[in-house]
Amino acid sequence: MKKIVFLSIISLLMIALIGCTSKPKLYVLNWGDYIDLDLIDVFEDEYDVKVVYREVGSNEEMATLLQANSSPYDIAVPSDYMIDKLKTLGLIQPIDFTKLTHYEDLTVIPELYTLYEANGFSDYIVPYAWGTIGILYNTDNANLKPLIESVGWNALFEYGDTYDVGMYDSPRDAVAAALLYLGYHVNSEVEAELLAAENALKSANFTAWGEDNLKGLVIQGTLDMALVYSGDYFSEYYLALEDEVEINFDYFVPETTNIWVDAMVIPTSAQNLELAHKFIDFFLEYDNALQNSDYIGYAPTFEEIYDTMVNDTEYSYDFETFDPFPQGTFRQMYQYGSDSRSEALVSIIARAKASN
Amino acid sequence: MMKLSLKRKIIRIIGLSFTVLSFLMIFTPILVILVLSINASTKGYSWEGFTLKWYLELFQKDVMREPIMNTLVIAFASTIIATVLGTMFAIGINALEKKKRIQMMVINNVPVVNPDIVTGISLMIVFSLLSFTLGYYTVLIAHVFFSIPYVVLSIMPRLKKLDPNLYEAGLDLGCSRISGVFRVILPNISTGIISGALMAFTMSIDDFIITYFTSGAEYMNVSTWLYATLSRGRSFTPAAYAYNIIIFAITIAIILFVNLKRDRKEKTV
Amino acid sequence: MRRLRPYAVPYLLWMGLFILIPTIILIILGFTNLELYNIGVFDITLVNFSIFVQDQVVNALWNSLSYSFVTTLICFVIGYPVAYYLSTLSEKKRKILLAMMIVPLWSNMLLRIIAWEKIFTPTSIIADIFGISLDLLGTPTGVLIGMIAMYLPFMIFPIFSVLEKMDYKLIEAAKDLGASDLQTFVKVTFPLSSGGVVSGVIMTMLPAMTSFVLPARIGLGKINLIGNIIESKFMKEVLGSSGASINQGAIISLLLMVFSVISFVLITRVDKEGETLI
Questions:
Q1: CA-CA distance, B209 to C68, in Å (whole number)?
Q2: Residues A197 and A288 in one domain
Q3: Helix axes B2-37, B239-268, angle to 10 degrees
Q4: Looking at the structure, do residues A144 and A291 belong to the same domain, yes or no?
Q5: How far is CA C30 from CA B81, B117, B126, C34, C50, in A?
Q6: What residues of B are in contact with residue C100 (Cβ under 8 Å)?
Q7: Of A80, A290, B14, B188, which residue is most buried, by most CB within 10 angstroms?
């Protein structure tokens, strides 16, 4: 009995201790494994703060957390269309670029800048990483490569009877793929075009609707191909190198596709503006930016970092698969659009999933 | 008579084979987790050779330390709080007259019967109304909330068996109201309290849904961490399998230990 | 013992706070356009009910009912003999086997789901090592096996706990009176264990109905249950000025509560204090 009482007191003390630290806190909302945690340690030491780091699985979840105002987030890293929406909802605030001493030293890749400036939120973000959506396929079947490279998006929508095809279980991406396949713009609000996209999704005969599990399904051969983010391909690619296993998959980006960008933003709920800017600035410092980009392995958004990673022999990232926006291709960036469109997207894939 | 015993044998065989089938279904995933925890491949798509590096990683890298600590601390703390409160409530409920007691038990069983998702959402709504910042304390309250009913349920049958006069006798012998509880009631319901605590711990350590709805920025347990890494994260590491196997091994060890100890006691008596 | 009654009072308040208040709010959310995260004036409306005509919701409801029904049925068919068999064993064996059944529940649910995912992939690590190659991802069979394995213990425990406590004198009496084994079982044993069966059915069916990770992963996103819809409504679609998704989620949650209430009515019929729930 005494032992139990003793243990109870110890555990309760532990909770009390874990629950509170006296240091100022910086709340960061980000994707899983999307930042070099060693750098966060350095930042914590340098500024004597505690970084509270929350990982989420989707943009919608991120927005819900910001909207529910359950915690006073100081930094978040949402994607393009969600930034658009967060801005309209007044959930993020413009960044004070004068406080970012290292921003001057770096140049945002011009093609990327043009795209997001056109979306009207360039004052609110510091871009973090960018990439494409495309087709991940299994190379064990030699027929797939020539097929996918010749027909592009059609591969996902017209070959469902011959091959096992996976679709991303995210309204915006699935509908975008269908719109691209039909030759429409990813942000189309035209009802007839959306209806056509829905029908394409319904008749495509997908084997799977998934998220993070799609890439594994392709690599294991359960699926022949699937719609994925370029990031999905990269993470599998690096893992295969690390594990020293044979690489039996490849990633194809059709000529016209969507460009995604994840960016650091400062929510209006931020309690510690000064520190939030310092945090962003810390990740703009050349060495830190380089280290972080190398860690996450996605295309960096700044020319200087990009050049080093591609040309410096210490890094030598593969230019071919690395460049999200090669010459002569067409790229479209998501906009949030209207609420009713967003709801329509959700219903479209819900119906498509139910009919598959 | 021969025929009858044959029939019994058949029934026994059916019972036995279904039991084997059940254990197979329940243990197969654990076996797979064990295999994945000693496989050299990160993604576990194929067998790449034996390794113990994920077990080492568990202690060396920071990736999973926080979720694991969070899970364990909340599991222990919520178990202790829920057991103390649950015992107190059970004693109170047991003292009520029959009709009220049944009403209280129905209320008690609401979180047990309600789907987790409804409980999670309900708690989230209350916290958001009270403008609590979601995090450590909200998760703790949530876990205490859904654990108490199990504690009460485990204790009630023991309390009912208890002779009410015993407590009164204790009081007559000079116990105060509280020391009467400690000296007379608690020793008699201790097995119920222990199994209630065990239930509470079981519920807490594996909880995903309720934690998912009630945790904010500062709190992530193994389940919510896994869920985030499974959807778009890349931080998944087989160390998660290793953690699971360690927990599993510890519990098996505890159970064997308890059983052996009991055996020895029985033998020496 | 009367003096100990005050101990129950805080519990009533505590339960009121966490059960009654959210239920009232869910009702308000369901029948109005109140915004949970931006509480202000609201109007009473039935517009949230429109989700019940959406294909995907109807489909998810149907899936929830059918999958949870089949899961529960199979769990019962397997679980009852198991509980019965366990209750006939010696106390020592019984305790160990029961403990062995609880221990896997301490394994993380999501990891167990990943494990089933691997088992159902024909070219997975399981095929490498054990030479077993199952291709059940994305099939109803796969989802059902996963669900049965997940919820089977919750069927076995309550039935077992009733059978364990059963007064065997009654059974002996029946036999003394000339009843056959089958008659004894049908007329005595089974009716006496009905409380456990009802609890087992409830503890299996409600969680199965509302699971959302398992169908999403093992069903490859093609088999959606009502849990997937609720999760999406509360955690993924909350955006927008209308805030309607939470209100729609509230309506579906209320529907689930109706199932809970029905369960309660059933339980209180056979077991007033719900002692068989665990």
A1: 18
A2: no
A3: 140
A4: no
A5: 34, 16, 16, 9, 11
A6: 23, 255
A7: A80
| C91 interfacial to chain B (CB closer than 8 Å) | no
Residues A216 and A334 in one domain: yes
Query: What is the number of CB-based contacts under 8 A between chain A and chain B?
Result: 111
**Residue A309 belongs to some domain of the structure:** yes
Residues forming a β-bridge with A291: none
Residue-level pLDDT at A21: 57
Contact B73 A11 (CB under 8 A): yes
Domain B65-236: homologous superfamily in CATH: MetI-like (1.10.3720.10)
**Are A342 and C217 within 8 A, CB to CB?**
no
Could you identify the residue written with the tokens 């429409």? Answer: A184
What share of residues in chain B are helix, strand, coil (percent, to 5)? Answer: 80, 0, 20
How many structural domains compose chain A?
2
Q: What percent of chain B has pLDDT over 70?
A: 91
Q: B230, A213: Cβ pair inside 8 Å?
A: yes
β-bridge mates for residue A130, sequence order: A261, A299
CA triplet C58, C62, C65: central angle to 5 degrees? Answer: 140
Chain B: nearest CA to A174, how far in angstroms? 15
pLDDT tens per residue, range B232-253: 555 678 888 998 999 889 888 8
β-sheet bridge partners, residue A56: A31
Contact C79 B22 (CB under 8 A): yes
Q: Domain locations in chain B?
A: 1-61+239-269, 65-236
Summarize the confidence of residues A115-131 as an average pLDDT.
91
Which range has the worst mean pLDDT, B72-86, B137-151, C73-87, C171-185?
C171-185
Cβ–Cβ < 8 Å for A223, A138: yes
A131, A231 in Cβ contact below 8 A? yes
Give domain status of residue A15, yes or no: no
A48-62, A235-249, B25-39: range with highest mean pLDDT: B25-39
Interchain pair B228, A37: CB under 8 A: no
State chain C's mean pLDDT as an integer: 84
User: Quick one: average pLDDT of C154-179?
Assistant: 84
Q: Which residues of B touch A31 (CB under 8 A)?
A: 232-233
The answer to whether the CB of B89 falls within 8 A of the CB of B152 is yes
Asked if A354 and C232 come within 8 Å (Cβ–Cβ), the reply is no
| Contact across the interface for B113 and C264, Cβ inside 8 Å | yes
Token look-up 């007064």 returns C167
Average pLDDT for C28-44: 79
Residue range(s) defining the domain that contains residue A207: 131-259+330-355
Q: What pLDDT was estimated at residue B234?
A: 58
* Residue B3 touches chain A, beta carbons under 8 Å: no
CB A181 within 8 A of CB A157: yes
Residue C138 near chain A (CB below 8 Å): yes
Residues A251 and A288 in one domain: no
What's C236's DSSP letter? Answer: I
Rounded distance, CA B42 to CA A287, Å? 28
- Cα separation of C121 and C99, whole Å? 30
- Are A119 and A140 within one domain? no
Both tokens of C198, joined, read: 């009802």
* Residue indicated by tokens 């071919």: A320
Query: What domains can be seen in chain C, in order of their start residue?
Result: 2-277 (1.10.3720.10)
Q: Which chains touch A (3 or more CB pairs under 8 A)?
A: B, C
Residue A325 lies inside a defined structural domain of this protein = no
Of the candidate ranges A19-23, A42-46, C176-180, the one whose mean pLDDT is the lowest = A19-23
Return the structure tokens found at B261.
């100890």
pTM above 0.95, yes or no: no
User: Is A233 found in the same domain as A166?
Assistant: yes
Say yes or no: A107 and A222 in one domain. Answer: no
Domain assignment present for residue A1? The answer is: no
A65 and A197 within one domain: no
- Give ipTM to 2 decimals: 0.85
The CATH number for A302's domain is 3.40.190.10
